[in-house]
Amino acid sequence: MAELVRVRRLTDPEGQRLQQIVRRGSTSSVRYRRAMMLLASAGGNRVPVIAQLVQADEGTVRDVIHRFNEIGLACLDTQWAGGRPRLLSTDDEDFVVQTATTRPTKLGQPFTRWSIRKLAAYLRNVHGRVIRISREALRCLLARRGVTFQRTKTWKESPDPERDAKLDLIEEVLERFPDRVFAFDEFGPLGIRPTAGSWWPEQGRPERHPTTYHRTHGVRYFHGCYSIGDDTLWGVNRRKKSAVNTLAALKSIRAARPHGAPIYVILDNLSAHKGADIRRWAKKNKANLCFTPTYASWANPIEAHFGPLQQFTVANSNHRNHPAQTQALHAYLRWRNANARHPDILAAQRRERARIRSEKGIRWGGRPLQAAA
Length: 373
Fold this sequence. Notes:
Blueprint: H1 12-24, H2 29-42, H3 47-54, H4 58-71, H5 90-100, H6 116-125, H7 135-144, H8 163-176, E1 181-191, E2 219-227, E3 232-238, H9 243-256, E4 263-267, H10 276-284, E5 287-291, H11 303-314, H12 322-339, H13 343-360, E6 363-364, E7 367-368
Parallel strand pairs: 1-4, 4-5
Antiparallel strand pairs: 1-2, 2-3, 6-7
Helix pairs in contact: 1-2, 1-11, 2-3, 2-4, 2-11, 3-4, 9-10, 11-12
């Protein structure tokens, strides 16, 4: 059997960046879809499920995954070819990049950061080496070499001493027991307010939503459950996160496999997920809780499916109240589950089509298919 195509284990910054793009969206649809592919693959979703999720060809999904395994997050950006030949040597380009990524104060300049104009002027007057380059060419060079203008940020890495062990456990259960693995997480807060989004209006006539100043409806949290084997998403809106609501969700997951065999539930380290009552119930009902490492909720397979939930039920909405919002959310879930395709069924269909082509001698890619051994 061919090896499953899957992204390598993500680092904490990579997982957090992909999760941020999927949750918040991106101005580039290509970047958003590729991030969703990678996050879904990191959560254990197979290629057919990911292709259905992002409405892309399975070959495209595999190419993106292989590209990420080679060059990392740089695969999110498209690489356009063409243009005039380079006028700078590779050594000159390396010097420009090194200068741009060095603090100006270390080079004797009286400012804390470069601008394109200041950097171009410095390169023209640097001692021992003169590089003449226009501001636009300099901007394109930096973008091509992966150097962008960014805000200074703080960062956090997982301090969990059991990080690798937890990720190993999640990968193992996803590989060995996909039909008995579930994922659980909360999505929210969901407020009642007009939310910006996008759609297809007549040119120059965008849809406008009113502004609200008094929001007296409070918030809700969608407690979502996802079946890896069935590719099914369900859940319910609650007023808050709590151990009682978590236990109710776990019971609904246990009811999805009533035969009594052990199940595995992937969830994060929220305190509402780890209460004594929950642990006693899990032990009694053969529910193995697989916690993601601290600050690594991207390892939860359900995270990739919250992106479309945000885009198609929350974004570009103006619900009257929480019941209307909940009704719209559940209508989307019914549509999503009715249109989801089981990965095993897809694989069986592909094998059957290949067998039929082989028997009938149908040509594929310019050559006749050979009969299966």
